[in-house]
């Protein structure tokens, strides 16, 4: 596979990789998650605490994955890490789940959010929601055909643009007077009777807001210095994302009476209006548009690399089709086309929360496998070249394992239908895998 990876042009530097990490994570969630988190926690103190805790867990997960990414800087990202450590079948199931649902569902859900915000901002007819969403999906697919450098540039530009309203809200909001009293200590669950249940619910809500950062590993085959820049982009990106989530959540709580935030999807706009006046609502809407645009581009850019690697490795039906690259820009256009078609179908379905939450759950199962994989590789291949090694080993991967195990077990108990459905859909990849292996065996006879 290393030979196949060399067909991809190594054009991406550190900042496009950092932009991809932050761009994939910072979408609409930075504005919308505050309503669900406060609903789960019941207090300002616990809300800020769970953001810090989830950031701490995610950073330790990032430190763990960064070691794998630096040691295995090849196209395919986490798919190749799983394959290297556990074999082809678990790797195929991961790639199947990503290619069929995870990436397309992320693209379609975010495109619907983008369309909704365009309609609200421009006072357009609600009937334009689907056409706008599909236009965005197709537009970003076509733009990414121009090459990884173009897609990476969009990520860099959109990251800078999306951070402007966030920075304005945070900086101005921190220094404006507020009549709301905020108590960060002691950490309590407010009116919620069960502290640990509130902590668990809040942690789950915030953890899902960090989803997407691992996808930058898919670009390793197109990075100039993946052994150096990949780990740096993951670690620095997650530190900055945690800082953004904590500070902007604090500003929202500072600007609005706490009881008005839980379940209020307009909390961000109302807080911005308190800070800037009526124009604040439009600023937030534009910020959401830019954030979501960058997030859709991130998924559009990274997703096809998974299908490409499956095709290049001859691990899926129609492998030659999926392994085909564009002549001049070396982009996996066919894998991207299939992803785009599935995303468009999902746009017409209309609701994607169940699908995306389900795949986040499945992804955490594979994430746990990777955290454990750090220990496996340290034991089995102590001489493996590791340009980046985890500081304070083995503490970071242990923290990541504890956090990941909590998410998986909590989801199984809290949302059993979602969890079982996710597992079943993932396992549906097995008959497809074995059918392809059977056909390969027949061809070789």
Automatic annotation (TrEMBL):
The keyword Repeat does not apply. GO terms for molecular function: L-amino acid transmembrane transporter activity. The keyword Membrane applies. It is found in: Membrane. It is a multi-pass membrane protein. PANTHER family: AMINO ACID TRANSPORTER, SOBREMESA, ISOFORM B. This is Amino acid permease. It holds the Pfam family AA_permease_2. Gene3D superfamilies: Amino acid/polyamine transporter I.
